[in-house]
Amino acid sequence: MSQSQLDVAILGGGMAGNLLARQLVRRLPRARIAVFDKKHAHAHNVGESMVEIASNYFVRRLGLGSYLYQRQTPKNGLRFFFDTPERDTPLPEMSEIGSDSLPFHPAFQIDRSRLEGDLIEMNARDGVRVHLGARVTDLELARDGSAHRFSVSDGSHTQECASRWLVDASGRSRLIARREGLDVPETQLANASVWGWFTGVTDIDAVGPDAFRARVRHTPRRLSTLHFMYRGYWIWFIPLQDGMTSIGVVCEKRHLDPRTRTPDGFLDFLRGHEAVRSLLENAKPIATQGYRHLAYGTQRFFSPERWALVGEAAAFPDPFYSPGADFIALANDFSTDLIARDLAGEPLRARAERYDQFMRFRFEAAMRLYRDHYPLFGSYELTKLKWDLDVGCYYNLWISQYLCDEHLNGRALRRQLLQREPVLAALSNFTALFRLLENRLRETGAYHRSNRGAYSDGQDCIRFMKEVGRPRSEGEVLARTEQIFNAVRDRALDLLEGTPGHGRREPKPLAWFLEPRALDR
Taking 90 as the threshold, does the pLDDT of residue 41 lie above it? Predict the structure, then answer.
């Protein structure tokens, strides 16, 4: 490699790093950009389910719409199934939260090995300097405006490199975070995961009587990310290309038997669930992997000293709702904007601080969707409440903001940051309400009462989805938020009081939800 200074060095050639390289080369075609990855080739990896923000990022920002339909798998939303404590309910008899039509805003399932290999080829073709089998050492972050420096070894020789910008996309190696002491351990959410890839998994659309398929109007369930829900854990099925299926479990650590981390133990665990076993009759496992702990945070995502952390090199919350690629989209957008402005000679400090504050706010808001929520997951009634709140707010607040590029608008971003404490307070208030209801249902033996034979359309809480991405006033967004909050609280109180369909409570103003308080009063 030339000794000339790079404009941007990206440390890590997985999904986050290669997506950023593509975004940068499209925005800054004359910039000197290089990607360094210690791997020579990419294998299957988790993080295969994308939701709406990430999908919009791929299509609109990166121009990968045709690619996603040709080389990856379109997704039919998230779908949830519920069981008895004995884990013996046949799949067609399970209660279900899903949809009976393909989503209005597209999403995709991603074969990571294919995606990352394809991105490397695209980036190299477009002028990005791609270095595989390149291990980064001796990293020195500049403090005085000079170039960052590091060494790269390919096993036979070592080379010194310098770059104006340094972006850490090294995944859980977390080169900058570990060097700078930025790690924030997650102590409240003790989540762990085991997963693997299988061939020969039975097509869920061929299971059960015709009535099972008819209740979703024969929309392809197989294209959904399937979740089999249990108190304290959930099991995913994600369809990939070429007959491969990703299957995994995410759980509170206390639910994870160490033997489950072995290939045989993992398969035995899966087969201990009647519905899951019915899909694995002819399946063949390919590989098994796992993490003993999933969630962690960071003290900083972006620095005015011209470095950034993206993807899992920064932070990771929990796979439920598939937020990982959403955070890549946001961090890559912010990184690209900072780099472009810096190379154009603009000052960085104020904007870098705002972007960093927003990413930390957004991450903390996500964490409050998972902390203390795993005990809810085994109940159809509780999960439906949680789904309606979380997805309603995701569409109304986060997706709408992203599609309108408000996260890159300084004035809009400042307004968002002013809402940090009220938003976090509201999320904590609903967590307390849901846990109160979960305790009540367990005490009365009603936790599993609706887990058999019920179906609800997961899109009924987002009937406003066609408004999302169009200009809306702040008043319209707040009014929709108030409506979502009141609807979920009313149904939660109905369950607490044993009066389903009560529907006569006076709506509370939005400000009432945004202060720390008990929502059951």
Answer: no
Residue position matching structure tokens 């603009």 = 346
Given a contact cutoff of 8 angstroms between Cβ atoms, the answer to whether 176 and 168 are in contact is yes
pLDDT by residue (tens digit) across 181-198? 999 999 999 999 999 999
Q: What is the pLDDT of residues 51-73, one digit of tens each?
A: 999 999 999 999 999 999 999 99
Rounded to whole angstroms, the Cα distance separating 167 from 17 reads: 8
Residues 6+ apart with CB under 8 A from 30: none
Beta bridge partner(s), residue 257: none
Residue owning tokens 């990430």: 54
DSSP 256-303: --GGGGSHHHHHHHHHTSHHHHHH-TT-EEEEEEEES---EEES-SEE
Q: Are 404 and 396 in contact (CB under 8 A)?
A: no
CA–CA dist 85, 379 (Å, integer)? 10
> In this structure, what token pair is assigned to residue 120?
């490397």
Mean residue pLDDT of the chain comes to 95
C-alpha of 421 from chain center? 22
Instruction: Give the pLDDT confidence of 235-267 residue by residue, as tens digits.
Output: 999 999 999 999 999 999 988 899 999 999 999
Please determine, for residue 504, whether its predicted confidence score (pLDDT) is greater than 80: no
Say whether domain 73-109+190-291 belongs to CATH 3.30.9.100.
yes
Q: How confident is the model at residue 385 (pLDDT cuts 50, 70, 90)?
A: very high
Burial class (CB in 10 A: 0-12, 13-18, 19+), 227: buried
Region label for 503, one of left (φ > 0), alpha (ψ between -120 and 50) or beta (otherwise): left
The answer to whether 320 touches 249, Cβ cutoff 8 Å, is no
CA gap 157, 133 in Å, rounded: 12
Query: Which stretches within 368-473 are classed as H helix?
Result: 380-393, 400-403, 410-418, 420-443
Closest to 200 in 3D by CA, of 270, 284, 111, 109: 284
Cα–Cα distance between 320 and 234 in angstroms, integer? 9
Measured CA to CA in angstroms, residue 373 lies from 4, 227, 273, 369, 392 at distances of 51, 15, 22, 7, 17
Give me the residue spans of the domains in the chain: 6-47+113-182+303-346, 73-109+190-291, 358-513
Extract the tokens encoding 379. 């109940």
Under 8 Å between Cβ of 139 and 75: no
Q: What is the CATH number of domain 6-47+113-182+303-346?
A: 3.50.50.60
DSSP 220: -
Percentage of residues of the chain with pLDDT beyond 70 = 98
Both tokens of residue 471?
């200009």
